[in-house]
Protein backbone atom coordinates (compact mmCIF):
# COMPACT_ATOMS: atom_id res chain seq x y z
CA UNK A 1 0.00 0.00 0.00
CA UNK A 2 1.18 3.48 -0.77
CA UNK A 3 1.10 6.01 2.00
CA UNK A 4 -1.75 8.47 2.05
CA UNK A 5 -0.29 10.89 4.57
CA UNK A 6 -0.21 14.46 3.33
CA UNK A 7 2.94 16.39 2.49
CA UNK A 8 3.69 20.05 3.12
CA UNK A 9 6.38 20.74 0.56
CA UNK A 10 6.90 19.65 -3.04
CA UNK A 11 10.43 19.57 -4.46
CA UNK A 12 10.86 19.39 -8.22
CA UNK A 13 13.78 18.37 -10.34
CA UNK A 14 14.03 20.73 -13.33
CA UNK A 15 15.50 19.04 -16.38
CA UNK A 16 13.10 16.32 -17.57
CA UNK A 17 10.43 17.16 -14.98
CA UNK A 18 9.46 20.82 -15.39
CA UNK A 19 10.87 21.27 -18.87
CA UNK A 20 12.17 18.86 -21.47
CA UNK A 21 15.76 20.06 -21.60
CA UNK A 22 16.99 16.45 -21.26
CA UNK A 23 16.78 16.13 -25.05
CA UNK A 24 19.10 19.14 -25.47
CA UNK A 25 21.65 17.68 -23.06
CA UNK A 26 21.54 14.50 -25.11
CA UNK A 27 21.99 16.33 -28.42
CA UNK A 28 24.97 18.28 -27.10
CA UNK A 29 26.66 15.22 -25.55
CA UNK A 30 26.08 13.23 -28.72
CA UNK A 31 27.68 16.01 -30.76
CA UNK A 32 30.71 15.92 -28.48
CA UNK A 33 30.93 12.14 -28.75
CA UNK A 34 30.79 12.51 -32.55
CA UNK A 35 33.68 14.98 -32.51
CA UNK A 36 35.65 12.55 -30.37
CA UNK A 37 34.91 9.78 -32.85
CA UNK A 38 32.36 7.55 -31.17
CA UNK A 39 28.59 7.16 -31.06
CA UNK A 40 26.38 7.84 -28.06
CA UNK A 41 23.01 6.12 -27.73
CA UNK A 42 19.88 7.38 -26.03
CA UNK A 43 19.96 4.47 -23.60
CA UNK A 44 23.57 5.26 -22.60
CA UNK A 45 22.40 8.85 -22.06
CA UNK A 46 19.96 7.70 -19.33
CA UNK A 47 22.93 7.33 -16.98
CA UNK A 48 23.79 11.01 -17.42
CA UNK A 49 20.39 12.30 -16.36
CA UNK A 50 20.50 14.22 -13.09
CA UNK A 51 24.28 13.76 -12.90
CA UNK A 52 26.58 16.82 -12.71
CA UNK A 53 28.29 18.18 -15.82
CA UNK A 54 31.77 16.84 -15.02
CA UNK A 55 30.47 13.46 -13.85
CA UNK A 56 28.45 13.27 -17.07
CA UNK A 57 31.60 13.93 -19.09
CA UNK A 58 33.41 11.14 -17.25
CA UNK A 59 30.57 8.72 -18.07
CA UNK A 60 30.57 9.82 -21.71
CA UNK A 61 34.34 9.40 -22.04
CA UNK A 62 34.16 5.99 -20.40
CA UNK A 63 31.43 4.88 -22.82
CA UNK A 64 33.69 5.89 -25.73
CA UNK A 65 36.79 4.29 -24.20
CA UNK A 66 38.59 7.67 -24.08
CA UNK A 67 41.32 7.80 -21.43
CA UNK A 68 44.37 9.84 -20.51
CA UNK A 69 42.89 13.34 -20.77
CA UNK A 70 44.22 16.11 -18.51
CA UNK A 71 41.86 18.04 -16.21
CA UNK A 72 42.28 21.06 -18.52
CA UNK A 73 41.25 19.03 -21.57
CA UNK A 74 38.21 17.75 -19.69
CA UNK A 75 37.25 21.30 -18.68
CA UNK A 76 37.51 22.35 -22.30
CA UNK A 77 35.31 19.48 -23.50
CA UNK A 78 32.68 20.18 -20.82
CA UNK A 79 32.53 23.85 -21.68
CA UNK A 80 32.33 23.09 -25.40
CA UNK A 81 29.32 20.87 -24.69
CA UNK A 82 27.81 23.55 -22.44
CA UNK A 83 28.06 26.19 -25.16
CA UNK A 84 26.17 23.95 -27.60
CA UNK A 85 23.64 23.19 -24.89
CA UNK A 86 23.12 26.89 -24.17
CA UNK A 87 22.59 27.57 -27.89
CA UNK A 88 19.77 25.00 -27.80
CA UNK A 89 18.34 26.63 -24.63
CA UNK A 90 17.96 29.88 -26.57
CA UNK A 91 14.99 28.30 -28.35
CA UNK A 92 13.10 27.65 -25.06
CA UNK A 93 9.76 29.37 -24.52
CA UNK A 94 6.99 28.99 -21.88
CA UNK A 95 5.44 26.47 -24.28
CA UNK A 96 8.25 24.06 -23.39
CA UNK A 97 6.98 23.57 -19.85
CA UNK A 98 5.89 19.93 -19.80
CA UNK A 99 2.16 19.10 -20.00
CA UNK A 100 0.27 19.28 -16.71
CA UNK A 101 3.10 20.95 -14.79
CA UNK A 102 1.68 24.47 -14.51
CA UNK A 103 -1.77 23.44 -13.32
CA UNK A 104 -0.27 20.92 -10.88
CA UNK A 105 1.95 23.63 -9.39
CA UNK A 106 -0.96 26.08 -9.17
CA UNK A 107 -3.09 23.54 -7.40
CA UNK A 108 -0.41 22.65 -4.85
CA UNK A 109 0.26 26.31 -4.12
CA UNK A 110 -3.45 27.07 -3.73
CA UNK A 111 -3.49 24.39 -1.01
CA UNK A 112 -0.61 26.10 0.81
CA UNK A 113 2.01 23.55 -0.21
CA UNK A 114 5.41 25.17 -0.59
CA UNK A 115 7.39 24.45 -3.75
CA UNK A 116 11.08 24.33 -4.65
CA UNK A 117 13.40 23.40 -7.49
CA UNK A 118 16.22 20.95 -6.70
CA UNK A 119 18.36 20.70 -9.82
CA UNK A 120 21.93 19.66 -10.54
CA UNK A 121 22.07 22.17 -13.36
CA UNK A 122 24.15 25.32 -13.25
CA UNK A 123 21.94 26.58 -16.09
CA UNK A 124 18.79 26.36 -13.94
CA UNK A 125 18.37 30.17 -13.48
CA UNK A 126 18.59 30.68 -17.24
CA UNK A 127 16.07 27.89 -17.97
CA UNK A 128 13.58 29.12 -15.34
CA UNK A 129 13.79 32.60 -16.78
CA UNK A 130 13.33 31.41 -20.38
CA UNK A 131 10.18 29.40 -19.60
CA UNK A 132 8.92 32.09 -17.20
CA UNK A 133 8.09 29.78 -14.31
CA UNK A 134 10.38 31.07 -11.53
CA UNK A 135 7.46 32.73 -9.68
CA UNK A 136 5.86 29.32 -9.07
CA UNK A 137 8.66 28.32 -6.68
CA UNK A 138 9.39 29.53 -3.17
CA UNK A 139 13.02 28.42 -3.43
CA UNK A 140 15.56 27.30 -6.02
CA UNK A 141 18.56 25.09 -5.25
CA UNK A 142 20.74 24.29 -8.23
CA UNK A 143 24.20 23.24 -9.34
CA UNK A 144 25.57 26.67 -8.40
CA UNK A 145 24.84 26.20 -4.70
CA UNK A 146 25.60 22.56 -3.97
CA UNK A 147 28.90 20.78 -3.41
CA UNK A 148 27.78 17.19 -3.87
CA UNK A 149 25.87 15.95 -6.92
CA UNK A 150 22.88 13.59 -6.92
CA UNK A 151 22.59 10.80 -5.74
CA UNK A 152 23.91 12.69 -2.73
CA UNK A 153 20.85 14.04 -0.87
CA UNK A 154 22.35 17.54 -0.40
CA UNK A 155 20.27 19.35 -3.04
CA UNK A 156 17.00 17.99 -1.63
CA UNK A 157 17.92 18.65 2.01
CA UNK A 158 18.91 22.20 1.16
CA UNK A 159 15.58 22.75 -0.62
CA UNK A 160 13.66 21.37 2.39
CA UNK A 161 15.61 23.66 4.73
CA UNK A 162 14.79 26.70 2.60
CA UNK A 163 11.12 25.72 2.63
CA UNK A 164 11.17 25.11 6.40
CA UNK A 165 9.89 21.55 5.95
CA UNK A 166 11.07 18.31 7.57
CA UNK A 167 12.32 15.78 4.97
CA UNK A 168 9.56 13.30 5.81
CA UNK A 169 7.01 15.96 4.90
CA UNK A 170 8.45 16.55 1.44
CA UNK A 171 7.42 14.93 -1.83
CA UNK A 172 10.04 14.92 -4.61
CA UNK A 173 9.34 14.70 -8.35
CA UNK A 174 12.23 13.25 -10.36
CA UNK A 175 12.97 11.79 -13.79
CA UNK A 176 16.44 10.36 -13.11
CA UNK A 177 17.67 7.31 -11.23
CA UNK A 178 20.33 9.41 -9.48
CA UNK A 179 17.65 11.87 -8.34
CA UNK A 180 15.28 9.18 -7.08
CA UNK A 181 18.15 7.70 -5.08
CA UNK A 182 19.10 11.11 -3.68
CA UNK A 183 15.53 11.82 -2.57
CA UNK A 184 15.29 8.45 -0.84
CA UNK A 185 18.60 9.07 0.93
CA UNK A 186 17.17 12.44 2.04
CA UNK A 187 14.32 10.56 3.72
CA UNK A 188 11.67 11.94 1.36
CA UNK A 189 8.92 10.35 -0.68
CA UNK A 190 9.49 10.46 -4.41
CA UNK A 191 7.42 10.21 -7.57
CA UNK A 192 9.33 9.00 -10.62
CA UNK A 193 8.34 10.69 -13.87
CA UNK A 194 9.29 8.45 -16.78
CA UNK A 195 10.24 4.83 -17.25
CA UNK A 196 8.81 2.77 -14.38
CA UNK A 197 11.52 0.15 -14.67
CA UNK A 198 14.41 2.60 -14.59
CA UNK A 199 12.85 4.46 -11.69
CA UNK A 200 11.77 1.35 -9.83
CA UNK A 201 13.03 2.69 -6.48
CA UNK A 202 10.49 5.55 -6.53
CA UNK A 203 7.40 5.31 -4.31
CA UNK A 204 5.23 5.67 -7.40
CA UNK A 205 5.92 6.12 -11.08
CA UNK A 206 3.97 7.73 -13.89
CA UNK A 207 4.92 8.47 -17.46
CA UNK A 208 3.94 12.14 -17.35
CA UNK A 209 2.56 14.88 -15.15
CA UNK A 210 -0.79 14.64 -16.87
CA UNK A 211 -1.09 11.17 -15.43
CA UNK A 212 0.22 12.22 -12.05
CA UNK A 213 -2.02 15.23 -11.64
CA UNK A 214 -5.30 13.46 -10.83
CA UNK A 215 -3.52 11.22 -8.32
CA UNK A 216 -2.47 14.17 -6.23
CA UNK A 217 -5.36 16.47 -7.00
CA UNK A 218 -7.84 13.94 -5.70
CA UNK A 219 -5.67 13.43 -2.64
CA UNK A 220 -5.82 9.70 -3.24
CA UNK A 221 -2.22 8.68 -3.45
CA UNK A 222 -3.14 5.38 -1.84
CA UNK A 223 -5.94 4.55 -4.22
CA UNK A 224 -4.72 5.94 -7.51
CA UNK A 225 -0.97 6.12 -7.12
CA UNK A 226 -0.08 2.48 -7.46
CA UNK A 227 2.92 1.96 -9.68
CA UNK A 228 2.17 0.76 -13.18
CA UNK A 229 4.95 -1.77 -13.36
CA UNK A 230 5.97 -4.06 -10.54
CA UNK A 231 4.83 -3.45 -7.02
CA UNK A 232 4.96 -0.28 -4.95
CA UNK A 233 7.82 0.02 -2.52
CA UNK A 234 5.84 2.16 -0.11
CA UNK A 235 4.56 0.70 3.06
P1 LIG B 1 24.44 21.71 -16.36
P2 LIG B 1 18.41 18.21 -13.21
C1 LIG B 1 20.75 17.99 -14.50
O1 LIG B 1 19.57 18.70 -14.25
C2 LIG B 1 20.62 17.21 -15.80
O2 LIG B 1 19.63 16.21 -15.68
C3 LIG B 1 21.93 16.56 -16.15
O3 LIG B 1 21.81 15.89 -17.40
C4 LIG B 1 23.01 17.64 -16.22
O4 LIG B 1 24.28 17.05 -16.49
C5 LIG B 1 23.06 18.38 -14.89
O5 LIG B 1 21.79 18.94 -14.61
C6 LIG B 1 24.07 19.52 -14.92
O6 LIG B 1 23.59 20.47 -15.84
O7 LIG B 1 25.48 21.19 -17.28
O8 LIG B 1 23.39 22.57 -17.03
O9 LIG B 1 25.02 22.39 -15.13
O10 LIG B 1 17.79 17.00 -13.85
O11 LIG B 1 19.08 17.90 -11.89
O12 LIG B 1 17.47 19.38 -13.16
MG1 LIG C 1 16.13 15.58 -14.27
Task: List its traits.
Rossmann fold, 2 domains, DNA polymerase, domain 1, 42% helix, six-stranded parallel beta sheet, 10 helices, 235 residues, alpha/beta, binds magnesium ion, binds 1,6-di-O-phosphono-beta-D-glucopyranose
Summarize the structure.
The chain is an alpha/beta fold and 235 residues long. It has helices at residues 22-36, 42-45, 53-63, 71-89, 101-110, 124-130, 154-163, 177-185, 209-217, 221-224, and strands spanning 9-12, 114-118, 139-141, 170-174, 189-193, 204-206.
Outline the structure in words.
Helix 6 links the parallel strand 2 (114-118) and strand 3 (139-141). 42% of the residues lie in helices and 11% in strands. Residues 220-235 have low confidence and may be disordered. It has helices at residues 22-36, 42-45, 53-63, 71-89, 101-110, 124-130, 154-163, 177-185, 209-217, 221-224; strands spanning 9-12, 114-118, 139-141, 170-174, 189-193, 204-206. Helix 1 (22-36) crosses helix 4 and helix 5 runs parallel beside helix 9 (209-217). By secondary structure, the chain is of the alpha/beta class. The protein is built from ten helices and six strands, in the order βαααααβαβαβαββαα. The chain folds into two domains: 2-20 and 94-227, Rossmann fold; 22-89, DNA polymerase, domain 1. The structure holds 1,6-di-O-phosphono-beta-D-glucopyranose and magnesium ion. 1,6-di-O-phosphono-beta-D-glucopyranose is lined by residues 13-16, 25, 48-53, 56, 82, 119-123, 143, 176.
Amino acid sequence: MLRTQPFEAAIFDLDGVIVDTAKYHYQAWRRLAGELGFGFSESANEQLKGVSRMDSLELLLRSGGVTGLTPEQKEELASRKNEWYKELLETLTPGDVLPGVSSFLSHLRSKGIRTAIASASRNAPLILEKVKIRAMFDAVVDGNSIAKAKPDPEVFLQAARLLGAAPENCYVFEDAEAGVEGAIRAGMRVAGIGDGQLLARAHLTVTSFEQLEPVFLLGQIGAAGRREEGSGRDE
